[in-house]
Amino acid sequence: MTILRHWRRLCSAALAALLGGAAGLANAQNCPPALPAPNPALLSQPPAQAPDRGLLWQLEKDGRTAWLYASIHIGRPDWLVPGMRLQAALAASDTVALELDLTDPQVMQALAGPVPGRPALTLPADLQTRLQAVARRECTDLAPLAALHPMLQLGQLVAQSARRDGMSVEYGQELALIVQAQRRGLRLAGLETPQGQLQALIPADRKAALEEIREGLRQLESPQLRQQTRRLTEAWAAGDLNTLERYETWCDCVKTAADRAALKRTLDDRNPGMADGIVKLHGQGRRLLVAVGALHMTGEASLLQALRARGFTVTQRWPEPR
């Protein structure tokens, strides 16, 4: 099997489970063009001097070293090629640990199924109308996603909106690292359970869920969303931790106490559990490369702080601190 065909199969399996089946793009004049496939030669043999993107830390504990990479869940086709420092971290590792192991069929099945503790939510007519209007604008058929919680449908529309700027979840770092791990014969591991991650993304309280959906639609209806997504991804690509640290000040997404609670639930509250997962794998003698979303590296309750609290020495290796 060619590496490009393997990447496509990974994309299809991941998207089908995460999104309940790929949402079709309408054949309309204002729809974004299809994104190009990655260069299979660059995936199979990344250039030794490929540019570095994201951020990379070295972790040390008990006389052994691990690596922590700040990933991003959407990207551009050329971002699938690992930079030279990430290649070195892959070469020094025997296990790649992600938030979830998307190659595990049980994980994928759980992502596509009902969320424990989160009952089905039927949107009021006004929110459903707005959701459908955004879907039409983003050339997305919501019918294949009907079984998913509206919060997850909303997330799909955010991902679709990025296609207008040449980005997609297919080019996120998770799939890029899975391709590289499997090409190099490395083991894959997950730091979270799919049920736990979905519970973090979806509020248990119906009123809170509706408030978050209403706020998410407001952002999708605003022309500023694409600008904010570009700023986030460009900061990641440049390794600009300062801009990522100030995310709340420019994202137009933290306006109320409810917004702050949602951000805490989806980021800060997950960091201790992921840190415990890293401790467990490190304690098993694994030579780890860990990749977790970049915003988990920010704030006083960041994953970096959680790892320091568990005895790791954490040293930034890329970009090199000034």
UniProtKB/TrEMBL annotation:
Signal peptide: 1-28
High-level lineage: Bacteria, Pseudomonadati, Pseudomonadota, Betaproteobacteria, Burkholderiales
Coiled-coil region: none
InterPro entries assigned to the protein according to its UniProt record, in alphabetical order: TraB/PrgY/GumN_fam, YbaP-like
Top-level taxon in the UniProt lineage: Bacteria
Listed name of the protein: TraB/GumN family protein
Keywords assigned by UniProt, alphabetized: Signal
